[in-house]
Specification:
4-stranded antiparallel β-sheet, 30 helices, about 800 residues, alpha+beta, Vam6/VPS39/TRAP1, protein transport, transport
Length: about 800
């Protein structure tokens, strides 16, 4: 692909049409008054119409309209210079010039129509061979190093250290040169690479790999024109690839010249001056499209936009996308084509017209070979995706849903059909269920029935899928979907119960239990999910029965002796059917339930447990439940020798009881411990001391101290005595505080009574009773604290009620 055309400028090129905008090309051999050849020239046309020439370290400025020198504006000892590339933006009619002098100074001048004024200067260590500037700052290079000056952050630093080194050249064969890419961004020449950098020496862009070492280069969006030996290489700055190679021997200089919106490139060798004319973007894009380099064409078109927002409205970008989309569509790359059509908002009817015999659903494929049939299917897949993306625009069209669903059925994309029906089922008539069944989309049919409140039909299809009456539908998630369907909806309760029963029959006990528990409402006989009916149904399923009974007891809080006794018996069955090693967890559940439950038949359970000697602890717990505390504690202490468990059971029995009742339970255990003291002297003594020091258990310590063995030392009783003293002190203080509070309350009441007696209360015929709203005819009345008055008999009746 050609990006530029080169034209040779000779002495015969004299017509006005060819020379317009290129006056600077004639300067080298006319009346500029220079004693040596011009080594650098720049043109500023838009605002000031000036030509700058540098020869023999002498910077001279000419009027570009008549090529006459500007009087009194000249600079000496200049080694190189640069002009701000934002000069045309100044409305005040001036430009900024940056000059590197032979005295290692960088001078900034401001030039207007008549005068040139020095703004400031900066000392540098080495003389620069090239320099450039813009509103962001200055960049320059010596023969071995690149420097930058950030004008925005360095206004107060104009010493010799003002310029920052950003890159050093260690290779003497590498020419130091650079070009401006964008404001504040530059491309520096390195060893066979171009390094993009900012004035701070940072960049996120990877270097450009040059094929040959550059002598010089210039950036002209979006290309980099690189001058190498005997050639001009043109790289695309969009993908860093070499795009064009122009043979040209003995090239010496590159010069840019802005003409309206076109940046022309002037190239010189020892004999001629050449004008490098860029082709229009339209021509370049046309070349790329003709050679099927579609992405390059689109990237080139988009490079003209400074933001993504502009790409959506740019005429060149939109026309390029449409051209690329048509090419891709013709090549059956429909995914890419429809994506581009989507970007340019092309209606789907226009796309449908591109495909003949659209959606042949009513008959077999009309004499189409397999390759073309596969193309149809490929197109339909992409068409479905495109329709879904544009649903907000297309869904209002009458043929949107029929066309899309028919397309889905042809490409047999079951997952997409399921998603489509779940999302848009309200727009699809129930008549489509027959079409879906004929296409063997059974799960999709059930979903469509469900959306139209046809619950029995939907569940019937799922049941047939479970029983394999319908098959070959891999989208059916499994039997759990039926339970989920029942749980998420409030439909006929008899239907719900029948489905739960069906699940139970298919040994899906967990799913059935979820329905039984979540649909429970009351214990009414009319409720199919009452606990009595459910228990009768699941009696033959032991695991489900235990789970449901635990739910009824602990979640529903049903306090029926039948349910509680049944649960205890099931625990006992599980324990007695296993060894002691395997039933520890079940025994823990049984013991906790015996302690907490108050609704099972205690005597019945006790009679059954007494038939075996394996459950002595449970016997003790049942005696405690019957308030036979002494028998319970004797089993725990004398037979099981579990003193700590006896203490914990004492705490459990005391829960919810009054202080006197708690003391009764505690003293029973205390006496049982004393009776066993001779049998286990050390263990019982330790257990007694721990029991008496337990703050969760209440004692009458006067009685306790009277019964403790007299031979126990005071040291061993110190903690007990300390607790007894604290308890007695607390009781005394509490009694005194309570007595004082009562006395204060009585005093307040007496004061109020005296105040009421001293008040004069006026009763007349206009006053009304607060309760009956009748007038007073007697002299006696009752006065409330808020001052309201009522009849005596009304006050008695009100207080009685």
């Amino acid at each position: 692909m050609s990006s530029f055309r080169i034209r040779e400028k000779t002495s015969d090129d004299s017509t006005p049409s060819e020379t317009k905008g290129y006056e600077c090309l004639c300067i080298g051999s006319q009346n500029l008054g220079t004693r040596k050849p011009i080594i650098k020239i720049k043109v500023v046309r838009v605002s000031l119409h000036r030509v700058f020439t540098l020869s023999d370290n002498f910077l001279q400025i000419f009027d570009s309209d008549n090529l006459q020198p500007i009087p009194n504006i000249k600079l000496k000892n200049v080694s190189t210079f640069g002009i701000s590339n934002t000069s045309d933006q100044h409305q005040g009619g001036y430009i900024d010039i940056c000059v590197s002098t032979k005295r290692n100074k960088i001078q900034i001048y401001r030039l207007d129509k008549i005068n040139i004024n020095l703004i400031y200067e900066i000392s540098v260590q080495d003389s620069f061979i090239s320099i450039s500037m813009d509103d962001h700052g200055i960049i320059g290079c010596s023969e071995t190093e690149y420097f930058s000056y950030d004008s925005l952050n360095s206004n107060d630093r104009r010493s010799i250290s003002s310029f920052t080194s950003i890159l050093k050249l260690d290779d003497p064969n590498t020419t130091a040169c650079f070009t401006n890419i964008s404001p504040g961004q530059y491309l520096l020449n390195g060893p066979n690479v171009g390094v993009t950098t900012s004035l701070q020496g940072m960049s996120q862009r990877a270097p450009i790999m040059f094929i040959s070492s550059p002598i010089n280069f210039i950036y002209s969006h979006p290309y980099l024109i690189v001058l190498v030996r005997d050639y001009i290489h043109i790289y695309s700055y969009l993908d860093d690839q070499l795009k064009q190679e122009i043979p040209l021997k003995y090239c010496r200089t590159l010069l840019t010249m802005q003409q309206e919106n076109i940046k022309n490139i002037i190239v010189t060798n020892k004999d001629n001056i050449y004008l490098l004319v860029p082709l229009s973007l339209e021509e370049q894009i046309e070349q790329l499209l003709n050679s099927y380099r579609l992405q390059e064409a689109l990237t080139l078109a988009e490079s003209t936009c400074s933001s993504i927002k502009q790409r959506n409205t740019n005429r060149l970008v939109l026309s390029t996308k449409k051209r690329i989309a048509l090419i891709e569509f013709t090549s059956m790359n429909v995914v890419r084509a429809l994506s581009l059509f989507d970007d340019i908002n092309l209606d789907f009817h226009e796309i449908m017209t591109q495909i003949p015999n659209f959606l042949p659903l009513n008959s077999p494929w009309p004499n189409i070979d397999e390759n073309l049939k596969n193309q149809y299917i490929q197109w339909l897949n992409a068409f479905c995706d495109y329709m879904r993306k544009k649903s907000a625009e297309f869904s209002r069209q009458s043929d949107y849903y029929p066309a899309l669903l028919k397309a889905y059925l042809i490409v047999t994309s079951r997952e997409i059909i399921i998603e489509f029906i779940q999302t848009n089922s309200s727009y699809i008539p129930v008549d489509y269920c027959k079409i879906l069944i004929d296409a063997q989309h059974y799960h999709a049919t059930a979903l469509l029935y469900s959306a139209h409140e046809k619950h029995e039909q939907a569940i019937d299809i799922w049941k047939k899928l479970v029983s394999n009456e319908y098959s070959n539908d891999e989208t059916f998630p499994g039997i759990w979907i039926i339970a989920k369907y029942i749980l998420e909806r409030n439909i006929d309760r008899s239907l719900e119960f029948s489905i739960a029963t069906w699940l139970l029959e298919r040994h899906e006990e967990e799913l059935a239990l979820k329905i039984f528990t979540s649909k429970y409402q009351s214990e009414s006989n009319n409720d199919p999910f009452s606990s009595k009916q459910v228990i009768n149904l699941i009696k033959t399923h032991p695991i489900a029965l235990v789970t449901y009974l635990e739910y009824a007891v602990f979640k529903l809080k049903l306090e029926t002796d039948e349910i509680h006794t049944m649960l205890v018996n099931i625990y006992l069955d599980q324990i007695l059917s296993k060894s002691d090693i395997d039933n520890e967890q079940t025994r823990s559940k049984l013991q906790a339930f015996i302690i907490t439950s108050n609704s099972y038949r205690v005597q019945t359970i006790l009679n059954r447990i007494n038939q075996t000697n394996r459950l002595q602890r449970e016997v003790a717990l049942l005696y405690g439940k019957m308030n036979k505390f002494e028998q319970a504690f004797r089993i725990l202490v004398d037979e099981l020798e579990d003193f700590e468990y006896a203490e914990n059971y004492c705490i459990a029995l005391s829960q919810g009881k009054s202080s006197d009742d708690r003391k009764i339970v505690a003293h029973v255990l205390f006496k049982v411990f004393l009776n066993s003291l001779n049998k286990y002297p050390n263990e019982i003594k330790t257990a007694l001391l721990r029991l008496l020091c337990n703050n969760e258990i209440e004692f009458d310590f006067i009685e306790v101290l009277q019964h403790l063995p007299s031979h126990w030392s005071l040291a061993s009783l110190s903690q007990i005595l300390l607790r007894a003293l604290r308890t007695y002190s607390y009781t005394q203080r509490s009694t005194k505080i309570e007595s004082s509070l009562i006395r204060v309350q009585n005093e307040k009441l007496n004061i109020k009574l005296r105040q009421l007696k001293c008040l004069n209360t006026m009763i007349n015929e206009q006053r009304q009773c607060k309760h009956c709203l009748q007038q007073f005819y007697e002299t006696s009345c009752v006065i409330y604290q808020d001052g309201s008055q009522v009849h005596v008999h009304c006050a008695k009746n009100y207080n009685r009620n």
